């Protein structure tokens, strides 16, 4: 059973993006939803500027100890 539930995003949602080439996550804003509701266009916020990425897949974790796959986004969970 997955530890995360895929929640379809809404335009304007703040999510986390896991970069392909950098450690950790970056804040991102959903700017567009695609036909597949788990694909989104993101405005990713980097310390040096913004990056726009299209058709980025939502990540899902099977276990709490796993890390998010690079090149995916996930809902920002606050504790």
Characterization of this structure:
This protein is mainly β and 79 residues long. It has one domain (14-75). Helices cover 0% and strands 43% of the residues. The protein contains no helices and 5 strands. The protein has strands at 14-18, 26-33, 39-46, 49-57, 72-75. Strands 4-3-2-1-5 form a 5-stranded antiparallel β-sheet, with no helix packed on it. A hairpin with a 5-residue loop joins strand 2 and strand 3. The two termini are 21 Å apart. The model has no long low-confidence stretch (mean pLDDT 84).
Short note summarizing the structure:
With 79 residues, this protein is an all-beta fold.
Low-confidence stretches: none
Q: How do the SSEs run, as a string of H and E? A: EEEEE
**Radius of gyration using CA atoms only:** 12 Å
Which bin fits the share of residues in helices?
Answer: under 10%
Distance between the termini: 21 Å
Tell me about the biggest sheet? 5 strands, antiparallel
The rough form would be described as globular
Q: Quickly count the domains.
A: 1
Strand content: 35-45%
Output the structural class.
mainly beta
Q: List how many beta strands DSSP finds.
A: 5
Strand arrangement in the largest pleated sheet: 4-3-2-1-5
Number of helices: 0
Give me the oligomer status.
Answer: single chain
- Mean pLDDT, to the nearest integer, reads 84
